[in-house]
Amino acid sequence: MIPLTVLLQAAASFLAIVTFLIVLNVQKSMLIPGGVLGMFTWLLYYMLKEPTNVIIATFIAAIIGSCISQILSILYKTPAVVFILAILAPLVPGYLSYRTTAFFVTGNYSHAMVNTTLVVILALVISIGMASGTVVLKLYHYLQQHRSS
After folding, report:
1. Are 17 and 90 in contact, with CB atoms under 8 Å apart?
2. Any long-range contacts for 40-48 (C-beta under 8 Å, 24+ apart)?
3. Can you tell me the distance from the alpha carbon of 55 to that of 61, in angstroms, rounded to the nearest whole number?
4. For residue 25, is it left (φ>0), alpha (ψ between -120 and 50) or beta?
5. Which residues fall within 8 angstroms of residue 48, CB to CB, at 6 or more apart?
6. pTM for this entry
7. Which InterPro entries match (predicted)?
8. Do 114 and 91 meet the contact criterion of CB atoms below 8 Å apart?
9. Domain hosting residue 60, numbered range
10. DSSP single-letter state for residue 78
11. Residue 20 contacts residue 89 (beta carbons within 8 Å)
């Protein structure tokens, strides 16, 4: 990957996520941390997409983003939803959903069904990954408590 491309991806994702958070009326003090977390999640997905595939990259980015969002919610003493929105924004397959609808409208049902399957798989992977991130942190906390006892 070209470093300039990665830098442009980072800048564009940061601006897009901060704008998304503004539209959702997130408090101003959480815009920069949320934007950085979303940018990190997008870059993680972007870097993992080539050596693996879209599904695995989305799953790993969702798990790691969920863990970091839980940690940031504790550090900033704010609800985790603020940071979860920031990691959802880059992972949700919006363009793919749009293309699926376009295939249905134009009558290209074979492409529409393939894209529909991928959209559903990605939606499941995102939700399972975000739940898994929370479970991983709770398991880590549980093991830390029982190790010291």
Report:
1. yes
2. 40/65, 40/68, 41/65, 41/86, 41/87, 41/90, 41/91, 42/9, 42/10, 42/13, 42/17, 42/90, 43/6, 43/9, 43/10, 43/13, 45/90, 45/91, 46/6, 46/9, 47/1
3. 10
4. left
5. 56, 57, 60, 61
6. 0.89
7. ThrE_2 (IPR024528), ThrE_Dicarb/AminoAcid_Exp (IPR050539)
8. no
9. 1-147
10. S
11. yes
Rounded to an integer, what is the distance from CA 12 to the centroid of its chain? 15
Supply angle C-alpha 100, 22, 27, rounded to 5.
Answer: 135
CA angle (37 as vertex; 31, 99 as ends), nearest 5? 95
Closest CA to 71 of 43, 36, 105: 36
Please tell me the total count of domains within the chain.
Answer: 1
Give 19-74 pLDDT, tens digit per residue. 999 999 999 999 999 999 999 999 999 999 989 999 999 999 999 999 999 999 99
For residue 95, which amino acid is it? Answer: Y
The reported pLDDT for the residue numbered 1 is 59
Q: How wide is the angle at C-alpha 67 spanned by C-alphas 117 and 87, nearest 5°?
A: 50
Residue corresponding to tokens 């975000």 = 130
